[in-house]
Amino acid sequence: MTLPKPAAATAPTSSPGPGRRSFLRGAAAVGTAAPLSSFLSPGTASAAGRPTESAGPSDVALRWLEDRPAELAGASWGTPWPMGAVPGDQSFALTAADGAAVPVQSWPLAYWPDGSLKWSGHAISGAGAAADGYTLTAGEPAAPRSAVTVRERRGHVDVDTGVITVRMPTGGTDLVARVKRGDRVIAEKGRLVNLKQDGIPDDGLGTVRREELLSAVEEVTVEQSGPVRAVVKISGKHKRRGRSWLPFTVRLYFHAGAESFRMVHSFVFDSDGQRDFIAGLGVRFTVPLDDELHDRHVRLVGEGHGALAEAVRPITGLRRDPGEAVRQAQVAGRRTPDLSTWDTRVSGRIDLIPAFGDYKLSQLSSEGFTVTKRTKPGQGWVQADEGHRAAGVGYLGGPGGGFAFGLKDFWQLHPTQLDIRAAHTRAAEVTVWLWSPDAPAMDTRFYHDGLGQDTYEEQLEGLEITYEDYEPEFGTPYGVARTSELTFWALDGTPDAERLGAIADAVRAAPQLVNPTEHLIATGAFGGLFSPVDRSTPARSRIEDNLDFLFDYYVTAREQRHWYGFWNYGDVMHSQDGDRKVWRYDIGGYAWDNSELSPDLWLWYAFVRSGRADIFRFAEAMTRHTGEVDVYHAGDWAGLGTRHGVQHWADSAKQQRISTATYRRFYHYLTTDERTGDLMRELARSEETFLVLDPIRKIREEPYEPDPRALSIGFGTDWSGLAAAWLTEWERRGPRWEECRDKLLGTMETIAAQPNGFFQSPGLYDMETGRYAVQEEPRISVSHLSAVFGLVEVNAELIQQIDMPEFEAAWLQYCRLYNGTDAEAEEELGGTLPANRNLRQAHTRLAAYAAARLDDDTQAERAWTGFFHPSTDWEYGRDTELGTERVESTLNPTDWCDNASTNNTAQYGLAAIQNLALIGDRMPD
């Protein structure tokens, strides 16, 4: 398809002063992969830092993140482009590894300020076998053999993939009215179901009341309509008898030639967690069945490719043998021979063989699942089997067709469940439970009673002992969210073991195409702050070994400490307890990390430089978690995130530094995920939250009332979050992109105009003008946290594409002086910086950035000297030995690294990665 051309966007420009280097904006003139150093040499860009002419898009060789998938309905990915190299309306073609043209659908994800394409989104269908790899290039795309089509009618939307047709009503209870394959209805009445419970009896006694609420569709929007990929967005709430709650957003994805469709399900928890409790949350379909009971098949996949494979009415293992051909057909899932050919001792008594209409696979913890079945309601359940970690995949149907269903991260997001009910009737029900009704009701109540901390003084005392920033009524889950991913198949028959295994693999890890690291670097993606993994010298190898060790340690800790569960999966813990040899899961602000000091960024930069699938999947889970659970999406604090704590919503510090779009950009641009795009768009006006909540209300020394014309907003953790949201909305050309552009440029100009630039923080922000008031008197304010929540990364992207010398000078001043001498600070700022500046190793990447921008060997030496500092007080200093010991005394045997912490890990990782990219060629022996 042809991409729409955006309106031109401009930013202030002026010629760089003497000695200024072009840095990453020079990447716009490069069309092929090149080392980062090629972007740091003078003269590669025009005076304004932009290319003088378009080089055009280069070919990009794409590969699968994991092995070539055996089951592929479709896949989507994003590809970056250098500034000025690709027109905003460029069309793209795709070829397979064997040279065959592959149908591809393309659309813009982001634009550079000059209107050229920054990121393009692409999708392929799974019609036919997946290729080993693909090449993306400029050109006209091949047309699919059978395009996916969307027809919007009065009262419903129909999507036809060429294999299945799906009807979605624009109102009512059902999200999906029916799924047809040919003339056969495979499934119908697809709706959301919620069991609401009115209380939790803490002693296990007493009675509780449950009621069932169903989805009520309020809006249906067609976001893409083919020819390769179609996307339909459905929103609404769960309702019953005038009661409504749990707003939901569901996207359904369809691909040309596919017999399946994908669902991305998100809901917002709009309860304070004290009265209403979720006792079940699921997606339910009715499955019509017309085969004989002995030809109706159930499949439930366990760990690996093994599955419970049975018929509703089993005819194997009987006292009498119906015949080998009959038994083999049932076991294989084929239609059995006509009943008249059976041994009459079986056919004459077939009604006396019990038919099992109900099955359930319950995964109530990460460590085990159970499978039970019964003949019908009112009869006892029979235990079928147990296992460790189920795939979350099932099937119900017969030789003529059936319905397969799967939930991604099934055991990781426990308690989950797969239900099949009434399979002995002509209308069975299949429910994929995101929260199992067999588990205790979801308990989101705050974990302590406040401990008498009623005043700010008492709360600050509590902070001193447990590191928890408590405040009454602030530990609420109201407004947090969760996203789940499901896939459904309308099959033409019962899948054999091989096909069922391929389906399970596709559910566990959706097939993902990725760009080569060299292309990401050549385009300056994500600020260009990374370079390929390189072990060419002993010093480089030592750093790479440390990076590998730290990532592996968190993978191991997640497994051994069981960092799983519906609300927890994707996060990691903040700090360890060396006495108990456990992570401090129960100690105030030391428990769940909630993005503290940017582990999200560490993981994503680790992926883009290595291309490792295990890092991608870890980062993917973290992005899904931190963007949903750790951030408020409704209520007064919508747009703010919660600081680290025992519960993800427990701490009273609600801040921009957690909700920042910086942590979401990677996943959105690499995968085109629309839900992540929604989360970033929510933040376009998140400065309004400063009217509701003052982030430093407990420690202000002077009276302060939020004023929309003079909001106190810091230049570090606060502004970096706002700037990331504004930049993202601008480059995506969202509904408020011009407003966001102006606020971004206005704040950049007025930060640069402060007497001491970034050291002047905070400033008074005017919501009407989108600018800071420029202070008259210079002052010095420094926090070790200012630059470690995405400020480094967003400024790299801003300087990369916006030519504003004054802003760059202000940022480079901060980069130079944070690690500088008192004399340097005195000369430029009129005073010295505090001596106890923490995270010195983390901040070496500021000196590295200054060294690269200014071609300053002194800054490079300062960066590496600080990074390799021998002190063990500096994150992971030169003398820090990273290794593990086996601990048998904990609840489960664990591997323990005594000096690990997430703050240090994330910041060491970012400093190592960025220093290597920026000044790796100046590393001392």
From TrEMBL:
Residues 1-19 have a biased composition (Low complexity). Residues 511-923 form the PcRGLX/YetA-like C-terminal alpha/alpha toroid domain. It comes from the Bacteria. Residues 1-23 are annotated as: Disordered. Residues 148-504 form the PcRGLX/YetA-like central beta-sandwich domain. Residues 59-138 form the PcRGLX/YetA-like N-terminal RIFT barrel domain. InterPro entries: PcRGLX/YetA-like, PcRGLX/YetA_2nd, PcRGLX/YetA_3rd, PcRGLX_1st, TAT_signal. PANTHER family: CONCANAVALIN A-LIKE LECTIN/GLUCANASE, TAT PATHWAY SIGNAL SEQUENCE DOMAIN PROTEIN. This is Tat pathway signal sequence domain protein.
